[in-house]
From TrEMBL:
Domain ABC transporter residues, every copy: 4-252
Keyword Transport annotated: yes
GO molecular function: ATP binding; ATP hydrolysis activity; L-isoleucine transmembrane transporter activity; L-phenylalanine transmembrane transporter activity; L-valine transmembrane transporter activity
Species, as recorded: Chloroflexus islandicus
Keywords: ATP-binding, Nucleotide-binding, Transport
Protein name, entry field: ABC transporter ATP-binding protein
Taxonomic superkingdom: Bacteria
Keyword Transport: yes
UniProt-listed GO biological process terms: D-alanine transmembrane transport; L-alanine transport; L-isoleucine import across plasma membrane; L-valine import across plasma membrane
GO cellular component labels: plasma membrane
PANTHER family (alphabetical): AMINO ACID ABC TRANSPORTER ATP-BINDING PROTEIN (PTHR45772:SF7), CONSERVED COMPONENT OF ABC TRANSPORTER FOR NATURAL AMINO ACIDS-RELATED (PTHR45772)
UniProt cross-references to InterPro entries, sorted A to Z: AAA+_ATPase, ABC_AA/LPS_Transport, ABC_transporter-like_ATP-bd, BCA_ABC_TP_C, P-loop_NTPase
Amino acid sequence: MALLEATNITKIFGGLVAVNDVTFTVEPGSIVSVIGPNGAGKTTFFNVLTGIYKPDKGRVVFAGQDITGWRSDQIAALGMRRTFQNIRLFGNMTVLENVLIGMHVHLHASIWSIIFRGRTMVREEAKARNKALELLSFVGIADKRDELAKNLPYGDQRRLEIARAMAGDPKIILLDEPTAGMNPHETAEATQLIRRLRDERGITVILIEHDMRLVMSISERISVLDYGSKIAEGDVQAIRTNPRVIEAYLGKGAAGQAA
Ligand SMILES: Nc1ncnc2c1ncn2[C@@H]1O[C@H](COP(=O)(O)OP(=O)(O)OP(=O)(O)O)[C@@H](O)[C@H]1O
């Protein structure tokens, strides 16, 4: 059974059809990418999947439940987490606190009592802190646990976002341009991390990404959007050799890079 099934999703802003009748299925344990030129509707589609927008038409089924119209916190609690194109960390909180925030839907104690060490919550707090530290180790920034998030280098902020997304034990993580602004070395490291999410933690991954080298190296399936519509879907080979995709979306240079 598919983990995520979005059927005939349409989202309209005023007169603009940002997502147009898109059907998209994700199998558990896979890494899939959504690509397309700027303004194609990728982020809007993510926003519909994660409950930030309600679709004007269509249905989203996740982990066997119809989640169409659910709030984003309810969807997160069911096991769908995401990162954002523009990093959204709590800059004036520490790295560790940012991960604890990501855990809050799973804790009985309120996040404030954890941060300010409410007496009755000591045991739960210790468990949460240990888990947060383990996640920071997984993404490779445990040594920075006490730094303010805003002081981390850019690549580490992206890692922290992933650790925070992992904090709720998600079944699936949606990554919106996780390597935007990274240098090639950071991008290679991020690629490894995304692969490890799936291979070592069993987390299904959906990726919006403009870096075609990354997309082609990591994706098992790729869906291509343009002007809100899905114009192609398939494995790397099918997308790489699809003339419409090459000409309209990858361009000759990118297609060469991907080959
Ligand atoms: N809240 C909004 N209100 C009105 N129009 C919007 C809104 N959000 C997105 N749009 C429009 O919808 C279209 C799709 O935008 P979206 O951000 O989903 O594209 P994208 O494929 O993610 O682009 P990019 O690769 O540049 O991030 C664009 O024309 C955009 O201007």
